[in-house]
Design brief:
alpha/beta
């Protein structure tokens, strides 16, 4: 009776003349009652609102689904996780989240273009759906990140089976536009209720576990542990402290001499950044440099290091060491920045440092993803007069064609090869081959990590040009390096092993 008094009523009926098509009709009118007060119907008008309802449904779908893959988006995922938590709590069940990030997906986008990358994401979505049950939720929450919600589990360990299925499914090659692509995932797993009892905590912890999978070498899955959370919190504090460290002047440089292997004279130095934390004291470069690179702080820090090193070098040059070379490490992200060449040019101009005395050390990872832009930067730096040195040579890129294609002036032999050259025939052969290849291409060679007289004698016999290592000096502060420059004589060089 109360329902009959509603002035508007939407209902669905089948129109047989349209082959059973479902239509939505909105009726507006007054209810009709007979003399005994019984409801007989409505008197009014009806309107077909089927198209309007379809548009509304499409808008609702767009608000809750990813437009590329048609998977649930972050909004719908969070809603379903909330419902799954409530159900698991009532029934004393376990649910799990798999946080999935595609390894090196950016390389596909950058090298083959976004259309190919989009089709690869659609393929990943299909494969993930094939790995899960109909009751599970597979969502794309942005970029190359996916989340799988698994409900009705007996134990958290049951998610391991699904994670392995995902690893196997995504590792199968996909051919797109003639390119055979293999994509691997890093997967983080967390479970309710052990790893969190609300949506935000579960998502955060699954993300933390995924990041740990990245650190463990990618193409694997990791279950969340409290130790990961502690490490993540420590990393956040480290990031925050690093953002303040530059403006507070907490960074400084140490300098390690570079020696001419034949004469024993100091021909230059490598500038190495150090960080003195106000509470923790000295923080190891191996701890903070990766964070600096990942957070984008490498740009301003790299410019500061280059400016400080060039300023110091120029001061020592004008005090009587005019031929002194300065070597500065440049990360791949720093080198690939569009403003890198202009920054180097500006710093040389501001410090008065001759470009011919500057050596920029880059790793082979820069060359792996070489592009026209990267090639142009090599050429621009050479036109400027700066020298390019390949750091840790022999530990990365397998092709040597770049040695003749790019404007490279020097190779730096990694200390892992130098360490056992006097006792390991394989290392000795590798070092000998590197020096021979470099000299045949008119390149100089630096050996790092020289610590014994035997290593130095071997390098001298092979005609290595320059060496650095603890045999001569550890990295030292500017004042100590200045005194070293003044006191360094052939006799001092001989005493140090040169």
């Amino acid at each position: 009776f109360l329902e009959a008094r509603r002035p508007f009523l939407d209902f669905v009926y089948q129109r047989k003349d349209l082959h059973g098509q479902l239509r939505t009709i909105s009726v507006s009118g007054r209810p009709i009652f007979d003399e005994q007060g019984e409801f007989k119907g409505y008197r009014g008008t009806g309107r077909d609102v089927t198209e309007q309802k379809l548009v509304e449904e499409k808008i609702r779908h767009m608000a809750h689904h990813d437009s590329l893959t048609q998977l649930p988006n972050r909004v719908l995922l969070h809603d379903r996780i909330g419902q799954a938590i409530a159900k698991a709590q009532r029934n004393n069940e376990v649910l799990a989240l798999l946080f999935i990030d595609l390894d090196r997906f950016k390389v596909v986008n950058d090298s083959l273009g976004h259309p190919v990358g989009d089709r690869l994401l659609q393929s990943v979505a299909r494969r993930l759906l094939a790995c899960t049950r109909a009751a599970d939720t597979v969502a794309r929450i942005g970029g190359d990140e996916f989340v799988v919600l698994l409900g009705d589990l007996e134990t958290p360990d049951a998610a391991r089976h699904v994670a392995q299925k995902v690893l196997d499914a995504l590792s199968a090659p996909e051919t797109l536009d003639g390119h055979a692509l293999t994509i691997t995932p890093s997967i983080g797993i967390c479970a309710y209720p052990n790893d969190g009892k609300d949506v935000e905590t579960l998502m955060r912890n699954a993300d933390t576990a995924m990041y740990h999978a990245k650190q463990m070498g990618r193409d694997n899955y990791q279950f969340f542990t409290q130790a990961m959370n502690d490490a993540a919190q420590q990393r956040l504090r480290l990031e925050s402290d690093l953002r303040l460290a530059l403006e507070r002047g907490e960074f400084f440089l140490h300098y390690q001499p570079l020696l001419d292997v034949m004469t024993g004279g100091i021909v230059g130095f490598e500038a190495l950044v150090r960080w003195r934390h106000p509470q923790r004291g000295m923080v190891a470069p191996s701890e903070f440099i990766p964070v600096v690179e990942e957070t984008g702080l490498i740009g301003p820090l790299g410019e500061w290091v280059l400016h400080e090193a060039c300023s110091r070098a120029r001061a020592w040059q004008t005090s009587g060491h005019s031929q002194l070379q300065v070597a500065v490490n440049c990360s791949a992200k720093q080198f690939q920045d569009d403003g890198f060449v202009q920054a180097v040019e500006r710093i040389l101009r501001e410090t008065g440092m001759p470009a011919q005395r500057l050596e920029l050390e880059i790793t082979e990872s820069v060359i792996i993803h070489h592009s026209e832009k990267v090639n142009a930067r090599f050429q621009a730096l050479e036109d400027m007069g700066a020298r390019i040195s390949i750091d840790d040579f022999g530990t990365g890129y397998s092709s040597l064609s770049y040695l003749k294609r790019l404007a490279i002036h020097q190779l730096k032999i990694d200390q892992s090869f130098v360490r056992d050259i006097s006792s390991d025939p394989d290392d000795a052969a590798i070092v000998s081959a590197i020096i021979a290849i470099a000299h045949s291409l008119r390149l100089k060679v630096v050996a790092e990590g020289v610590e014994t007289d035997e290593q130095l004698a071997f390098l001298r016999a092979l005609g290595c040009d320059t060496a650095q290592g603890y045999l001569f000096s550890k990295p030292v502060p500017a004042e100590e390096f200045g005194r070293l420059l003044v006191a360094w004589t052939p006799r001092a060089a001989a005493a140090a092993g040169a």
